[in-house]
Amino acid sequence: MVTFICRTCLIIVIILTSLMSSGLTIQAVEVDNGIYVDFPITPKYTFDANNSHYVAVTDNCMLFVLIHRNAIPDYGKYFIASQKWSEIERKNVSEAFLDSVIKGRMHFVNGVNNAKQIMLGPYYGRKMIYSAINPVTGVRGKRISQFYLIKDKIVSFDCWIIEDNLAAYKEMNLFYGSIRNYKGN
Question: Which pTM was predicted?
Fold first, then answer.
C-alpha cells in the first residue's frame, strides 16, 4: 500500500512538473452549472441570446467551449414527458438528438461521422475526430469535438490543432482530461 501511494505521489509530481515546465498556466473554468474544464491559458468569454463561448488560442491549438441554450424547444414539456419514460427511452431520445447534432456538424465540414458514445456523469455525449479547413489559416487540420446534452443545452468542447506537435497534444490532453461534472446532476 505504501509503495502504491509513493508511486502515485511520484506520478503526480512528474505530471505537475511537466505542466509547469511546458509554460502552461492552467485556468479552471466553470462553463456551465457544475461543468468545469481546464484551459492552458485564460479563455476569452463572449455570449449572445442563445450561446456562450469560451475560447483560448495558443501557438499550438484553439480550444473552445460552446454552450448552446434552448437546444430542445419547449424543454419544460419535454422534461415533464421524460419523467414518464424508462431510462432506455430517455437514452434513445438523447442519443437521437446527439446523432442529429453530429450529422449537422459533419455536413457543415463535409466530413464522415465517426462519433463514439461518451458520458459525463449522467449526461450522454459524443466524441469525434475529423479534419476541416481552419478558417484562420486556410489549412486543413485535425479537430476533436466532444458534445454533451445537458438538460436543454448542447455543451461542445472543441480543439482545433494549429501546429501538429507534442505541445499541441499536451494542451489538448489537458483540456479533455479535465472536463468534469461536480454537481452530478
Answer: 0.81
